[in-house]
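Posted in: Structural Biology > Protein-Ligand Complexes

Title: Requesting predicted complex, NDP in pocket

I'd be grateful if someone could produce the 3D structure tokens for the following input. Sequence and ligand are given below.
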Amino acid sequence: MTILLSVTGFDPLRWLAALQQPGGQRPIVLEPKDARDPSIEYAVVWKQPPGLLENLPNLKAIFSLGAGVDHILADKRLPDVPIARIVADDLSGRMSEYVVWRVLDHFRSGRAYRAQQAQKIWHERLQPAAREITVGIMGFGELGRDAAKHLKLLGFRLAGWGRSPKPAEGVELFAGEDGLGPFLARTDILVVLLPLTQATRGIIDTTLLSRLKRDTPLGGPVLINAGRGGLQDEAAILDALDRDILLEATLDVFNVEPLPATSPLWAHPRVFVTPHAAAASDPEALAPTIMRQIAAHERGEELQHLVDRAAGY
Ligand code: NDP
Ligand code: OXD
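-- Reply #1 --
Done. Output follows.
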């Protein structure tokens, strides 16, 4: 039994070393012997080349190296085998660090103070309390719930939006199209942690941004998107900033990555850009969870964190 590791965009050798854990019995290859390689039973992938998995006759399951699976489902020639994604404390913890960092920076006037420092201006700005601010988490799944837990400790009010989100203490929950309006209307800082699916593509548009709470103690609503770039209309975000519909934005993900040098987002004074770095998949931390899943599947147990292909996440 062989495992195929196909990685684009990360260092495959780090993943290879981590998956070949001490005592690991299973051969791991970086490419199939041929398109119909019968030895390959599991594929561990990040942005695999389209068609790579199509004709492997004995493939039993596909594992994503991250939480998202849009990079797998983009391949229209996928075989009909289960797909599992990463759900792990290490990944959730990294995302929560990022969300807390960016929420606090916007909330505590990071941009304004950096500008003041550059001009040697000593001026204390108005300081709302965390309890006056609602952080709305759009995509209230594994990562959204973990981020909410950490933000709650800091005293923020919390709202969550999903398709049918699971209850979480101290979080006001909203679901579906009907819940979206009331969710946005109470949100001062919008944190987007949605997966990219047919239903969510382009969801962050002018209409959505203009439904965010207007009379916020921050002077305007803030957008933080660490989900996927395909969720956002980047021209609409720039327009909303320029028309003061939006105060500031943090963007970790983009329609085209790396973000092209020509994008006006790079130089916009009220946009904070990070290079799809909110929560890195760490091979040492995550490879054991994948290998445990494979071992359990070999013993006849159910795979965990399976993707619903019809829903796209
Ligand atoms: P989950 O599947 O656990 O959560 C997804 C959430 O989105 C759920 O609450 C789900 O609702 C909701 N959702 C999905 N579709 C819709 C819809 N059409 N309308 C309303 N809500 C919807 O995923 P994770 O929390 O583990 O990960 C979320 C995403 O974060 C990943 O898909 C990936 O794109 C991104 N990510 C980005 C990283 C980065 O470094 N920037 C790192 C890791 C992940 P419900 O609860 O009802 O199912
Ligand atoms: C993920 C990511 O989906 O890193 O895990 O984007």
